[in-house]
Design brief:
Helix content is 45%, strand content 12%. β2 and β3 form a beta hairpin. The N and C termini lie far apart (80 Å).
Amino acid sequence: MPDQNVPCVRCKRMCGEAPNPTVQNPGPQDVLKRRGKRNFCQSCYQYCASHSPYCDLDSKGIISKIEEDQDAYDADLTEWESNRRQGKRSRAGEKSVKVAAETRSSITTRVLLGYLWSQCLLKRHKLDSLWAKHPKTTVVHCGKPITGILREVGGPGAVEIYSDSQTSAVRKHLKADTAADDADEDADKSFRDLTKHLTVGVTSKELEDGETGEQSLQLKSKRAKFEQEDEDFLSVWGTCGIVTAGAKSSRDSDDEDDQEKSKPKKRAKGNGRGGGGGPRKIKQASAQADGPSLGDDAASQADTARDFGLSSSWLLGGKPRGPKGKGSGKGNKELESTEKVLTLYDGICNQLENEDTFMSLSFKKVADVSDKLTNRSTEELMKVYRDLSQSGSEAQRAVETMRRLAAANTRSTSICQLVSAIHDTEATAGTLRASIDEARDAGVNLPISVDKIAFARVMLEFSASGQWDDLFNTIQGEPVQNLFQNEPEADRADRCMEFQFVSLKTCIIKFLNQEIQVAKPAKAEGKGPVEVIGKEEKKKRDEEFSRVAR
């Protein structure tokens, strides 16, 4: 067994001598443990594996980062250990939430693929016979899947499906940032208000008596209530008046005036440069310089600032970006496929962290996602990611995908083992506890109910083997009481007592309901075939037996 009495290179505490900082009221045997044969303790390993920036560094990088400010590291580690003693589980790396408003000026090309008609829309137009004749198509619209048939004819209620390409100039402004704002800026409220302001509906106007023709449709938007400073923000950043019902707005009239002004006037014969022709042409040229037109060659030119140095990067071992073609398109598709798998993995992690949903997570689902992660981590695909990360507009995206993929592959194995141990009733309490510790060491956030399941399985094992003293000591022990440290103080004692009562009751009932199997006597084996004798022979043998018995 490795020597435990060595100092930790990170927190400088002596392993094997210092009390275990994650245990309340540690006894003589509760000491700071060393991480296997490594030169750091178990507590530092768990903290660095789940907290930024240490989780993104190697061992040497972690030590260098700690030595920059040893006191700050010790303070953060002490706070984390205090939370662990109280049964709290800190989330690894809080993410900020930002709400932004943006204005876009874009050049968009779109290809109409068709109109999706749902079954109810077909019935409304008395075309439900088409539902059985045409193949079904499902798309996601506004977060909901819609199934229908694809037609070349559109109408109100049909979903238009486009394939588009867009080149945009974007002006973005940050409205709220939960990580940066000192004031109580509610990011959710800001987002709901902005979304409500941009929500557009369609209303129909009924025809009056005697009128004929088609009903008129009108767009209406719900105007959210904003503070005065928010009204200025919306007006400046172009999110006011997205939809105007009724007469033409002043913005429309301004656009028409600009179009009239931008039309070149016919030059009078012999007028030369007189009149307003010269200045008007200069104004048109300056307006067109802001963004390339559809027919301008500059629209297809590369960004000089972004591509600076790429033509000479091969001199220093870099790989210059090649022309856009099938290769880059394939890389982007592979990147998108990997991101979809990572989204599935994030959904599993979110489901596993939730107290209400972690039991509904099946082993088959976790194993399927783990296999998909493995398939997206082959040598060929990793080479594609590395090529994309060296240059081009997808460099940052590729680096982020590789980082997320590495973390997901590291944690998916421990998640599979944990889910299997939870749902396998034959798995021992030791197996479940080892799976829980391994998952948390890998940085997976687990609810406290997982620990309750582990303790319940320990008590069931004690009752099945008749170890009642160990069962009572476990129920009344401090580890069970620590499971309820996060409960409200008024309900903490009652919920702990309820858990103890239900555990003891269940163990006794299971013990009493065990089947008692009585050992049955073994059947005597026959010595041979049965001899059939007659009455005379039987009488003769009985007389012989009586004579011998006298």
